[in-house]
Design brief:
This protein is α/β, with parallel strands linked by helices and 447 residues long. 28% of the residues lie in helices and 20% in strands. It is globular. It binds zinc ion.
């Protein structure tokens, strides 16, 4: 186990020059050769990107970083994370939310933040604390204050759900007798009620609003065995994730309620996203005008049409489905096909794996699955950079990132290899800079 890594301090110079031989332009979706980047250390911003017209003579200077020989990309944006969750293959979500201590979860999160940053992820769009109320606000601030290393975070605090919509389900919940469980959403109903909830979330410190347009909320109607020795019920309906009725996705809000949340978030200058899995929920949330749809896995034409028409960003979270469904399941194959159909329709993607359900630091898994679905590599890279910024709210973020251009944050990573030829290059991150500060530098002077 390595100790907490302090940023590798930059020298006294106020400017850093980064030389590159292959740089990804996330706007034009192409690589450029022989560009150099000038960075103002005081602002953490790129001041200039220019084509070198001669040989590099300053490579050994202390204010120069030579990334020639590597592939340089904007720092990656994971558009759907849960910093307080760790891999479900270690501990189920239920046990993490119900049984792990507040302290353990926060301490684990510090490890998650460092692992993500070292894997090239300079931004996290963190969509819900899953039982830790508004703790993500203070966690975000410890990173922003330089107390721990980690991605720049945009947090949702608690997600908004309707009554009984998103809760920890236990069979022994009798008040004063049974288990007590932490709440995992901010419940709200009615147009006035949901508007108030948006106001509460923003007041609590949220950067982004998330609501549950639908959820598989009827887990206790046909309960599945969840402890050793618990008997299953007789003749339960199918639990198939697409066609099954054992615990189907149920719409949580009326169209008017969704509209009201979107209007209130936008009036307050905040992006808003919706958890929506079933086609109807995606259509309603897209029509309401959400910034992004999370999940949307169920194959259907209507939601694709609605997302395209409303210019909705799609964050398909393939990784979390892959983790639970496995490689060769028919459901996973159908999901990948649906995602490719969305791409072919021209829907804008951002990349977010529901990271936390699998290990932080393995975030690139989502990009691998997008590529496997048939999305071209350059589009996957754009989804993981510039479109990630847009999913965070674009200029509502108060900072530009996800593109290596003048005025954008100096979030720069370098990988060993060319991802268009060898996608696994994205798992060989050799250099990480966030806001002009170097956090990882595993090589020097390649040329
Ligand atoms: Zn999630």
């Amino acid at each position: 186990m390595t100790l907490l890594r302090e940023p590798i301090s930059n020298n006294m110079s106020k400017e850093i020059t980064v030389h590159t031989s292959s740089l990804f332009d996330s706007k034009q979706k192409r690589f450029f050769s022989d560009l150099s980047i000038l960075i103002d250390v005081n602002t953490g911003l790129i001041t200039r990107v220019y084509k070198r017209d001669g040989p590099v003579n300053d490579a050994s200077q202390p204010n120069t970083i030579d990334l020639r020989g590597l592939t340089v990309l904007p720092g990656l944006v994971d558009a759907h994370t849960h910093i307080f969750l760790h891999s479900y293959s270690e501990v189920s979500a239920l046990n993490q939310m119900r049984d792990e201590s507040f302290v353990e979860r926060v301490v684990r999160a510090t490890n998650h933040a460092r692992a993500a940053l070292m894997a090239g992820y300079t931004t996290y769009r963190d969509l819900g604390t899953e039982g830790l109320r508004d703790a993500d606000v203070s966690f975000r601030d410890t990173i922003n204050r330089g107390i721990i290393p980690g991605p720049r975070m945009f947090v949702a605090t608690e997600c908004i759900a309707s009554s009984g919509g998103y809760e920890i389900r236990v069979e022994n919940g009798l008040p004063g007798v049974g288990q007590t469980t932490p709440r995992i959403s901010d419940p709200a109903d009615g147009v006035d009620g949901v508007r108030a909830a948006v106001r509460r979330r923003l007041g609590a410190g949220a950067d982004i609003i998330k609501f549950y347009a639908d959820y598989r909320k009827r887990a206790l109607r046909y309960p599945k065995p969840s402890w050793v020795g618990e008997k299953d019920i007789a003749f339960p309906p199918s639990d198939d994730v697409i066609a099954g009725q054992r615990n189907p996705n149920i719409i949580q809000f009326t169209q008017e309620e969704m509209n009201a949340m979107v209007i209130e978030a936008k009036r307050s200058g905040a992006p808003i996203c919706a958890h929506a899995q079933s086609p109807d929920a995606v259509v309603m949330a897209a029509k309401a005008g959400v910034t992004s749809i999370e999940h949307g896995y169920m194959p259907s034409e209507e939601p694709l049409k609605a997302m395209k028409e409303n210019n909705t960003i799609f964050v398909p979270t393939l990784a979390v489905y892959q983790v639970s469904l496995g490689d060769d399941s028919d459901a996973m194959k159908a999901i990948l096909k649906h995602i490719k159909a969305a791409f072919d329709r021209g829907i804008k993607f951002a990349a977010g794996g529901d990271t936390g359900a699998f290990a932080h630091g393995e975030n690139v898994f989502e990009l691998e699955l997008m590529a496997k679905a048939g999305i071209p590599v350059l589009d996957v890279l754009q989804a993981a950079t510039l479109h990630g910024w847009e999913a965070c709210g674009g200029d509502l973020c108060g900072r530009r990132f996800g593109l290596l251009d003048k005025g954008f944050a100096a979030d720069i990573i370098a990988i060993d290899g060319n991802p268009t030829e060898d996608f696994s290059a994205l798992r060989r991150v050799k250099f990480v800079m966030k806001d002009g500060v170097v956090y990882k530098e595993e090589y020097r002077g390649l040329s």
